[in-house]
Design goal:
The chain contains three helices and no strands.
């Protein structure tokens, strides 16, 4: 949903580098989600569970979803 919101608002990641490769578990990101996850990581909306893991198969908590929404709104400059 974050990647769809980025597309809808016309904002794209400022980096073309795939920053998901720095995570140990990046290979377990589903192929259908790879582009969206890469866009969210490049925009620094998703930082990972730890410095070296994304946990792509884990469910996000309410707190994590709130943080992602806040980072999205900051990235697209809707809030400071």
């Amino acid at each position: 949903m974050i990647a769809k919101a980025l597309d809808f608002t016309g904002y794209t990641s400022k980096s073309s580098i795939d920053s998901t490769s720095s995570f140990k578990d990046s290979g377990s990101i589903s192929s259908w989600a790879q582009t969206a996850v890469t866009a969210a990581v490049n925009a620094k909306i998703i930082n990972g569970v730890r410095d070296s893991t994304l946990a792509p198969s884990a469910e996000a908590t309410r707190a994590e979803a709130t943080v992602m929404l806040k980072r999205l709104l900051q990235y697209i400059q809707f809030i400071n």
